[in-house]
Amino acid sequence: MISILDILHRIESGRTTPQAAIAATLDRIEEKEPLVRALTHLDSGARAQEEGPLRGIALGVKDIIDVAGMPTGMGSPIYKDWIPRGDAPITSMLRRAGATPIAKTTTTAFAFLDPTETLNPHDPAYSPGGSSAGSAAAVGAGMLPLTIGTQTGGSVIRPASYCGAAAIKPSYRLLPTIGVKCYSWALDTIGLFAASIPDLAYALAHVAGRPSLRLANDKAPSSGAGLRIGVLHQDFAGPPEDDSAAALAFAMRAAEKNGATLVPLEAPQILAEAYAIHGIIQDYEVNQALAYEYDNHRDLIAPILRGALDEARKVSAEDYDAARRTAHRARKAVGAMLEGLDGVITFSSPGAAPAGLGSTGNSRFNRLWTLMGDPCVNVPGFVNDAGLPVGVQVISRFGEDQKALSVAAFVEKAIRSEL
Known about the structure:
The chain has about 425 residues and is an alpha/beta fold. It has helices at about 5-10, 20-35, 90-95, 135-140, 155-165, 195-210, 240-255, 270-290, 290-295, 305-310, 315-335, 365-370, 400-419; strands spanning about 40, 60, 100-105, 145-150, 165-170, 190-195, 230, 260-265, 345, 375-380, 390-395.
């Protein structure tokens, strides 16, 4: 994979230039894209910006997010050849920071479950996950140093786990979702993919205009001394597969060996109730968010999504309001559960990437945290016996994104020290 910080160090030392860095990225894309199929559009003539903390960093943007002059297809024939005139705010924020949008990355249709043509960069016989398939695969393949995606259920953390990328779903609304095709306004969250946690922290700090999100010296903590990390198995979401159980156990051993204190957690019952109502909120809102497409182009909607929209019309306003009240109570319970902890470690995905391209995987270990709005980070490093990556997830309290990144960077470093 390509490190943002390594590229910037080479630029700062005079060993390369921003435009040469962009050109090198385009060369890697030319080599690897036929094997991964992560992109829907490429600006092969892109010119680097010469100023800004992300100068020389090529950016891939999930194809439900607007980039001026590039097509936004949303994974659907309904929007074939649609080209927005302006950037989404998140795209403009990245440009202001110096990044160069050069590609649109594949998305499942309207960021739901119908698979894309993208292949897992570690083995093309396996899924890259979804819905941010192209964003995760492009980073995991070493094609792009930075991509953005979105998460409504588990569409950032899960594909990052499958593709071996570092990724963050920040606290809800830390990044603006205007100019992003809405699926559920109470859940949709923009996330970032990069090669490592320090890369993520650097990029997010500059994109969000929050310098405090950077890690000290842009490096992981030297040890886990003083860190208190909760361990949550999310029994309410069902058992993990062997690969994810092994990844979590390995990360726990590595974290303890490197000085962290692990605290077993029991989830209060309200979390199980909140987990169960994620779908009610999602379905009620998508029935409105995709009303135009359903009412005017139903036959062109991808089959899994079309069936989901048929069912979503049955969700009542009363059930939606009750679900929102449950979510509100659960957020208070999560805040209390995480009191005194720097973060929580849990599963990123049920297991390694599923075989074939018929499924994007399951988001059951991600949905609750999207609903809670808490920052979540996929930590890569563990690889199963088949050579497929399996991530672990670090979560911190709402608004404590810097803690989530710091704990995740420590866990990433600890895992690598034990491999």
